[in-house]
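Dig into what follows:
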Amino acid sequence: MRRPTLDILFQDDDFVAVNKPAGLATIPGRVETDSVLERIGREIHLPHTGLADPRIRVVHRLDKDTSGVLLFAKNRAAQRHVSEQFQNNLTAKEYLAIIAGRPQESTGDIDAPLAPHPTSPQRMTVTRHGGRPARTLWKAELRFRDYTLLRVFPKTGKTHQIRVHLKHGGLPLAIDPLYNPVSGGKAVGIFLSRFKKNYHPTKGQDERPLIARLTLHAEKLKFVHLNGKEMEIIAPAPKDFRATLNMLQRHSSR
């Protein structure tokens, strides 16, 4: 059976950008049977392995359960050009994050080095000594009773940076099994019944969550093209993210 197509946001002879769906890994892994890298290669008929150009080449990554702008290069020169911008923090990125709680401030600046967690190899942590510099800015876009939509501006690009920094700042993602796990046997997700008055799911059926994955979307990416042109790629938020915000605005605004 043919895999679903990807939403291609931009393409020319040097680059291709897609709106990565949540739940799909950026690159192949030991336990992955599919990835954006492989899928985009099939769709535009370019290899994703080998040395010869043109081929699909990785320049940055998104976590598997994060949606949004994901850029690939089509040749070695383009890969080198943009990879240097990512490595030197010369790209500009904007994310949308639905967090649990309501921050008192309207903006924030989290400047805290990150390092691998000493006892949990899957996680990163803020550390006082050592670690790699990391900085994240944020501003509140929409406030609800129990949630807030933040616009987040990572100024560096460390693994799990936004997730760890927001948790460190008391602003954890509403859904993040790794850094904000649910307790007490609760189901994972944002459910309409938790904030809409007198709402009850259909009798005999379990309520489906509005969203049940990482509440993080990479909305914008700015970089400089090989030709010197400043590029801005925008990825519309996916259906589950938009539906959640719509329901929160209708039934949980304050």
Summary: The chain has a mean pLDDT of 94.
